[in-house]
Amino acid sequence: MFNQNQLQRTMQGWKWNRKKPPVFPLLVLLLLLFVAFSTLHSEHSIQLIHESPDHGHSHQEISPTTLVKPNLSGHLKRAPEVLDRFSRCNSTVEYSGRKIAWLGDSRRSSGWRVRPESCDVFSGKWVFDNVSHPLYNESDCPYMSDQLACHKHGRSDLGYQYWRWQPHNCNLKRWNVREMWEKLRGKRLMFVGDSLNRGQWISMVCLLQSVIPADMRSMSPNAQLTIFRAEEYNATVEFLWAPLLAESNSDDPVNHRLDERIIRPDSVLRHSSLWEHADILVFNTYLWWRQGPVKLLWTDEENGVCEELDGRGAMELVLGAWADWVSSKVDPVKKHVFFVTMSPTHLWSREWKPGSEGNCYGEKDPIDLEGYWGSGSDLPTMSTVEKILSKLSSKVSVINVTQLSEYRKDGHPSIFRKFWEPLRPEQLSNPPSYSDCIHWCLPGVPDVWNELLFHFL
């Protein structure tokens, strides 16, 4: 479509043409007819994609402008092979240019959904508070993960547990465990995403479990869908392992360390069948898209031919398929959907301490430079996410944890966690070389993410 300036320039061009007749009127006429025909054909193709559940094309027929409607119903002529860690591409070709045509993509961007607040709760500073924080003790939570239990694994400086997030011109709603349980009574709260979202889920379970008698609570065995249940409130707090949101060969919650990432970019069906009945959904996806190129295996591909695309481009495709599910399936009156923005890493200390060559290892205090932004938060990715979420503003609330977490270089496990593989002598002699500067100690930063969730609920 033309905006007003484009239209004015076009009209001026037409006036100029009337004053100075074209040299080749027949060629110009033929060109206009070709453009008109192409436009009509494209509009007709888009309409067919939206109307037809079976819109597949063979690989050879794909053009750079092909739009693909996500597979939400599973009503295909031939059920695609389920991806698992043993799946392989028969061959790999260049990205064909397919895009996801999702319901609502044509809407004008309206900005991220903002609650009617008197101030921005995501803008503030960290305040040391050893009176009201931490909100629970690491040793008192039987569901704590060894990857996040930093004190248990040797971290003696506990200052990371005592920082409270303070918005600039207002206060966060004070955490109240009983009030949170009342909000959850008779409901399913589900976190969907990667290990960072699992950390937020563990944080929420630790925040909630203390008031539930041991014989009235239960935790299902670790699986793709893990469920904490509180009988008194007929409520569950669940975690669904779906690090890429779309179906992938990394959907095993344990065995997912693979050299080759394969996804079905047009299908969230495998995961949505598990999350669609939850009452409150908290999604995230980010880290896994920064691990190099991704192999795309489209749902209608029958010969195992994959396309290769960079991580951010693949993420945009998958978020389109996810957005289509949100647009077509979510009634915001009945279901609350939240999206947690990227969790930053702190891999290069030179970014906050010029001249140094370390990482988060040994860090004991937050960064005190307001507005600090390191390389652990990718701005182009943030822009991609914002572009999609802005068109879902009536159905998705954004929990923007990125800036506030950027300050917390001290909050990572570093070397104080359980490592699943034996450490080599050269690693042990150089702690920064194996420090975890991605995940977060608990109690710690993810507790604040959950305080924000409580605030908005």
TrEMBL record:
Organism (species): Flemingia macrophylla
Record-linked Pfam families: PC-Esterase, PMR5N
Domain Trichome birefringence-like C-terminal: 173-455
CC annotations in GO: membrane
Assigned keywords, A-Z: Membrane, Signal-anchor, Transmembrane, Transmembrane helix
Superkingdom in the source lineage: Eukaryota
Trichome birefringence-like N-terminal domain sequence ranges: 117-171
Family, similarity comment: Belongs to the PC-esterase family. TBL subfamily.
Annotated InterPro entries: TBL (IPR029962), TBL_C (IPR026057), TBL_N (IPR025846)
Bilayer topology: Single-pass membrane protein
Keyword Isomerase appears in the UniProt entry: no
Claim: Oxidoreductase is one of the keywords in the record: no
Subcellular localization(s) per the UniProt record: Membrane
Protein name in UniProt: Trichome birefringence-like N-terminal domain-containing protein
